[in-house]
Write a structure and sequence with these properties.
By secondary structure, this protein is α/β, with parallel strands linked by helices. It is built from 13 helices and 13 strands. The termini are close together.
């Protein structure tokens, strides 16, 4: 499997270090951000999901119409849209984008946010529903003729669609879930596991747990791993660390001053409750400030481990070496989310991605991209 690079698309310009200056859905901003990452050489971009957020499939359709090759990883929480309807939505988008879609299944780490959309199942039940959802979606994408499915959460009789994805055999399914129930589900339905950026020792342990669970489940298909991180780069290591400290200071100032909008403040609270991924990050944050070559907990501590929050800090060459360390553990997919999404994506394309490719080639970890 070749190494892939993912970026990030938001519907507007607000991030942890800045207030929103545009409308909640800014067409010009989405178009610019997509084009910058297309030109920078990213393979895909993640579009997030939450009860207060714009619809990811529609954002992807808009961005796809203004880019040439960029792929779209659409986060989706099973339970609010019937799997047959969702399968048709993604199949339609895959046709319109000429085969550039993928799906990131999120079972839901926040009980509060699930309930805002009317979901009162507990996490164990939600994982069971996610498994059924994925099984139905994959069948609708790949089978022709009437499909019947009977499960605990879904019952489908005679679905027979006229639209199938362009990609063969189907779009790729990413999956997030670090709890035992999450891993049990993910190894059965996902193509790739995604988790927050943790130090090398914890990442190695995560991969080992997931691989062992895959063997126990009798899985024979390859299973990929994705790590999401917030790179902070500058021409030198010293300049990068100074930049990192400025970012942390701005985050803390925004938290204490209450300058974040209510949705972002609520999100910070949500993502740190009943979320195994955030809990793992908090344990790391309590252990040290700097780990491995370039791993830094400052931004994660400042946000109380809310979502993608940990950083790799240094020159492009230093961060590239750190990324290669993860690649040696078996990670072949990396999501880089900036702090100023547009400008950081430009810098990643100019400086970081080329440096990573050089280091991977030097270590014998680079491969030619597979043709899908």
């Amino acid at each position: 499997m070749s190494v892939e690079f993912l970026g990030f698309i938001a519907a507007h310009d607000a991030q942890e270090i800045r207030r929103r200056t545009t409308s909640p859905v800014d067409r010009d901003y989405v178009r610019e951000l997509a084009r910058v990452q297309d030109e920078a050489g990213f393979d895909r971009v993640l579009i997030g999901n939450g009860s207060a957020m714009a619809d990811g499939a529609q954002l992807a359709a808009w961005a796809a119409a203004h880019t040439e090759r960029l792929g779209f990883l659409i986060a989706h929480r099973p339970g609010f849209i019937a799997p047959t309807v969702f399968a048709r939505t993604i199949a339609t988008l895959d046709n319109l984008s000429a085969g550039r879609t993928a799906v990131h299944l999120i079972t839901g780490g926040s009980e509060a946010d699930q309930r805002r959309d009317g979901d009162w199942l507990d996490k164990e039940q939600r994982y069971g529903r996610t498994r059924e959802f994925a099984e139905i979606v994959k069948r609708v994408w790949t089978e022709h003729g009437p499909i019947t499915y009977t499960g605990e959460h879904y019952r489908v009789e005679g679905i027979d669609v006229d639209v199938h994805p362009v990609q063969r055999p189907r779009p790729k399914l990413y999956f997030a879930g670090s709890s035992p129930a999450g891993i049990h589900t993910g190894v059965r339905v996902a193509d790739a596991f995604a988790f927050y950026g943790e130090p090398l020792a914890q990442t190695r342990e995560q991969i080992a747990r997931i691989r062992a669970a895959a063997v126990a489940a009798g899985r024979t298909e390859p299973l990929g791993f994705n790590v999401s991180i917030r790179p902070i780069i500058a021409p030198t290591d010293e300049q990068a660390w100074a930049k990192a400290e400025r970012i942390e200071s701005r985050i803390r100032a925004n938290v204490t001053s209450g300058s974040w909008d209510r949705v972002r403040l609520r999100s910070v609270t949500d993502k740190t409750q009943s979320n195994e991924g955030s809990e793992r990050l908090r344990r790391v944050n309590a252990s040290a400030t700097k780990l491995d070559r370039a791993y830094w907990t400052g931004t994660s501590r400042a946000t109380n481990a809310s979502g993608i929050s940990s950083a790799l800090v240094g020159s492009p060459e230093t961060v590239a070496q750190a990324i290669a360390d993860y690649a040696e553990l078996g990670v072949r997919s990396f999501l880089f989310k900036g702090w100023d999404l547009v400008e950081d994506a430009r810098d990643y394309g100019r400086y970081l991605l080329p440096a990573i490719k050089d280091v991977l080639a030097h270590r014998g970890l680079a491969q030619e991209r597979e043709v899908s």
